[in-house]
Amino acid sequence: MKWTEPLAPAALCSFTIACALAKLPPLTDEQQATPEETKAVAAAVAKKDAESLANAQDRVARRYMQEHKAKSVTNLALARTA
Question: Distance (Å, rounded) from C-alpha 77 to C-alpha 75?
């Protein structure tokens, strides 16, 4: 075993620790505002998606009720028991 083999893992560990503990510069005002804008846009998209889902569910329920109004109540009762 060469004497340099144990030095490679030690050097790698010290380099990794140094990178992990390095301090980053503080964020600018523009950089701090970016996540807030992203959250606002995501919230607006989520609200729009929820509204369109609710509308689609309402359309399906309305169509189901219209199709089954033509059938008699006894037919629906028989269909449920079968």
Answer: 5
Number of domains in the chain: 1
Residue 19, in any domain of the structure: no
pTM over 0.85: no
Q: Which residue has the tokens 């199709």?
A: 67
Residues 53-78: tens digit of each pLDDT? 999 999 999 988 888 886 655 555 55
Closest CA to 57 of 45, 47, 49: 49
Question: Coil, strand or helix: which one is 24?
Answer: coil
Residue 10 located in a structural domain: no
Q: Which two tokens stand for residue 2?
A: 């060469």
